[in-house]
Amino acid sequence: MITTASKQFSSWQGVVARRLAAAVCSVALALAVVPRVAAAQSRQHWSLQASGEWVSPRKDYGGVPTRGSTLGWELQGRYTFGRISIGAGYQRSTVFKLAAADLTGTLSMGFLEPRLVVVVVAQRVAPYLAGRIGYGALLLRGTPDSRQESFTYGGGAGVLIAVVPRVALDLGGQYFVANFGSGGGSAGYLMARLGLAIGLF
């Protein structure tokens, strides 16, 4: 009986040891992977990103012709934790110009942009998915000047390419919609973005 009990105790010890070893390996793997994912976005938790934009309207402003493409820019601060990062910033994009009527339309808005890194390649290249919501106004400069309050939403994808430990290139694209409320209609845009992200701390 003593021998049988001893064998059972030894078997139980082996099971516990194997489970404990598996748990330690899992934690070690998680701790090894998360910093690499974070590093692919930014080696620092906080970063600053500036981007130039190419914007192509997909819808009309109630009969206002919007053919062609225009330019814009944005600035955002980001906080990174693992595969996820959250950005808050300001976007200013010219969305149409009518030389004949001396009329220019510009979107001016603040926004939030969450991102999720899908995979990391060689610790330098990180494809991601992104969403965006924002609020601001369509600024109309003409005779007379006017503004229309606007809620925007959309999403897209991109890729981050680490250049040096504190600097990364951001190549991305999005489709977003600006909604101008009751009577104002809405307009959709394709946007391509080239940005530079700098890790702060």
Alpha-carbon Rg, integer: 25 Å
Strand order of the largest sheet: 1-2-3-4-5-6-7-8
As a percent range, the share of strand residues is: over 45%
Main beta sheet: strand number and arrangement?
Answer: 8 strands, antiparallel, barrel
Q: What is the count of helical runs?
A: 1
Unreliable stretches covering 5 or more consecutive residues? 1-10, 23-39
Please state the structural category. alpha+beta
Strand segment count: 8
Q: Overall pLDDT, averaged?
A: 80
Characteristics:
201 residues, alpha+beta, eight-stranded antiparallel barrel, elongated
Account of the protein in words:
The chain is an alpha+beta fold and 201 residues long. It contains 1 helix and 8 strands; from the N terminus they run αββββββββ. Strand 6 and strand 7 form a beta hairpin. The longest helix is centred in the N-terminal third of the chain and has 40 residues, at 2-41. The model is unreliable at 1-10 and 23-39 (pLDDT under 50).
Question: Short summary of the structure?
Answer:
The chain is α+β, with helices and mostly antiparallel strands. Helix content is 20%, strand content 58%.
Question: What secondary-structure arrangement, pairings included, does this model have?
Answer:
Elements: H1 2-41, E1 46-57, E2 70-81, E3 84-98, E4 103-117, E5 125-141, E6 146-164, E7 167-179, E8 186-199
Antiparallel strand pairs: 1-2, 1-8, 2-3, 3-4, 4-5, 5-6, 6-7, 7-8
